[in-house]
Specification:
Elements lengths: L2 H34 L2 H36 L14 H30 L6 H29 L2 H29 L9 H16 L1 H14 L5 H18 L3 E9 L2 E9 L9 H15 L6 E8 L2 H4 L1
Parallel strand pairs: 2-3
Antiparallel strand pairs: 1-2
Length: 315
């Protein structure tokens, strides 16, 4: 098994494990939310269900990308139907995931505010504490495990999965603190405020986690619109500039984009009129050196290097 295939299989295995646990916890959260009468716990379950749906979609896209990479190694290019691969699906899934999470958070925030206006709710704080404590431990432990496994993989999907588990664990920990305080109010002068605890903590949790999906959404939208990443653009431009000086070219035009895990790079060298071309092998040698200086060779790098005397072909 090649290194590429091994990494892809490991990514899929981690996503499957995460998805299985997430579905189980989502079901537990919904049941506990209904039994305890806590809207905050119910939101936690719905949040987990959205994550589970997106986790299944991420697993499907990861499998398509791996199969495409392996097929390109075996088949002739003309026999591959999707010749540009499935990289473009990755930021689309990430954008959809972030958008659904934002909408769910906004809906929960609106519901919490309505509950506060209407006088709150009275959940069973005893069971709510048990639920929140257990969920916080499981979610944070799973997030740390996935982060450790992703150090070598560097998968965007696993990184998003880690963030989701950490967010879920943080939400559960906040619920634990709030429910414990709510239970402690029993028999004190603060007991009349107990109904406000559940919607108040739900509103605070929503406000705390709302900015988090926006960073993923912003990054995904950049990939979808093929906006040139500053770091990749600077790196490719520097390598092309050195090649221009080294070989006496007129100039170089570079075009770069990052789409999910892929790096797409086009470099057009404008050569002076009458520039001597000894053989195609000499041009290939220039390509090899430029590619080596850029680095990152593998199934997720798309590098095209062209030579022309006509600047219009390069611009």
């Amino acid at each position: 098994m090649s290194r590429i295939e091994a990494a892809g299989r490991q990514e899929q295995a981690l996503l499957r494990q995460s998805l299985g646990l997430l579905i189980g916890l989502a079901g537990v959260s919904v049941v506990f939310g209904i039994l305890t009468g806590s809207f905050a716990i119910l939101f936690d379950g719905i949040y987990a269900l959205i994550d589970a749906c997106m986790g299944g979609l991420a697993l499907l896209v990861s499998r398509l990308i791996l199969q495409d990479a392996l097929r390109h190694n075996r088949d002739r290019p003309g026999k591959v139907r999707y010749q540009f691969g499935f990289w473009h699906l990755e930021p689309m899934v990430l954008a959809l995931n972030a958008t659904l999470l934002v909408l769910a958070i906004l809906y929960a925030l609106g519901s919490a505010l309505i509950l506060l206006v209407e006088g709150g709710s009275e959940p069973d704080f005893g069971w709510a504490v048990v639920y929140a404590g257990s969920m916080a431990v499981v979610c944070l432990a799973m997030g740390l495990r996935q982060r450790r496994r992703n150090r070598d993989l560097g998968s965007a999907f696993i990184a998003l999965d880690v963030k989701s588990w950490i967010m879920s664990g943080s939400i559960s920990f906040a619920l634990l603190v709030a429910f414990a305080l709510g239970r402690a109010m029993t028999g004190t002068r603060f007991e009349p405020w107990q109904p406000m605890v559940d919607p108040a903590i739900l509103a605070l949790v929503c406000l705390a986690v709302l900015p988090m999906p926006f960073s993923d959404l912003r990054a995904a939208v950049r990939d979808i619109f093929l906006l040139a990443p500053d770091d990749l653009d600077a790196q490719v431009t520097e390598v092309a500039t050195r090649a221009v000086a080294r070989h006496g070219f007129v100039e170089a035009h570079t075009y770069v984009a990052r789409v999910g895990r892929s790096k797409l790079m086009d470099i057009h060298f404008v050569v002076p009129p009458g520039w001597p071309v000894g053989s195609i092998a000499e041009l290939d040698a220039i390509r090899d050196r430029v590619g080596a200086e850029i680095g990152g060779e593998g199934p997720n790098r798309w590098l095209t290097i062209c030579f022309t005397e006509d600047v219009e072909w390069a611009s």
